[in-house]
Amino acid sequence: MLPAGLRISRRRALAGSAAALVAFGLLLWWLLPIGRTSPSGELTFSTGSRSGVYQRYGALLEQALAKDMPDVEVDLVTSEGSQQNLARVASGEADFTIATADAVATYKREGLPGADRLRGCARLYDDYVHLIVPQKSPVTSVRDLRGKVVGVGQQGSGVRLVADRLMTVAGLDPQRDITPVPAGIDTMPGRLENGSLDAFFWSGGLPTNSIQELSERFDIRLVPLEPELVDKLHAAGDTTSYYRSAVMPADAYMQAQGGTHVSTVAVANLLVTTERTDAAMTEGFTRTVIDSRDHIGNTVHPAQLVDLRTAVYTAPLPLHEGARRYYRSAKP
Length: 332
Description:
By secondary structure, this protein is an alpha/beta fold. It contains 13 helices and ten strands. Strands 1, 2, 3, 4, 5, 6, 7, 8, 9 and 10 form a ten-stranded mixed β-sheet that branches. The termini are far apart.
């Protein structure tokens, strides 16, 4: 029979070993994905026009998703822009997309099919509205577009939405007072250059490559969009409350701006899905969007502005439950 002191020491040793095993098990649970499954399956991501920021962002995000969620096959689909993107997601034709907050608010306000199913995942970067004219153009304000041939964006784009609204509050009829050309950023720069457009609207992150490249080969100018226009937009209704006055930095387009700031209108972009999308898939997608900010931002500069502290604010959409899980886990 063991002496009492030895029995006590042995019990303590056994208890210590058990505690160590428990601690080791907890450490393994934390470090290894035991009991957790990575999302799998297929998803469709509706982006934008071929040379626009949405498409370039989507292509780089696809690469990041392939690394973070290797069992998920991502299909990128180009689109006319925000309005078409929302219709695709709401109908189930796409699983995720990017759309401007004003387009989302309009879709919901008009009660379009599936509007009640839309959910937000993240607030991304802001789009800045551009009104581009040749350097020698007499156009110095939106009102001066009267009688001009103007590129207004494709029918399903957010560009078309904001262009029509800006012209309306400036006192123009978008159908009668100008000759509207429904074209995208893939063709409008070339049309301005060859003289078939007098001006064009664009809404995108800064800088937009197509406009940067245009400014380097053709003399263009950005027409100021004064804060008074935003005041009038806000007075027009709740769907226009998502616009804000902003300033394009002097170095956004060096050749086009001549080293000066340009007043403009900005609106937030949102990462959008629906309530039907799997929570684990949405959580993983949202995590990749935030985690890949710096890497993608090296190529698509607007992505640098994606910020964990503001990403959670997806009004006018409620957060998807999967996105909510991510933000809870990412809290410092």
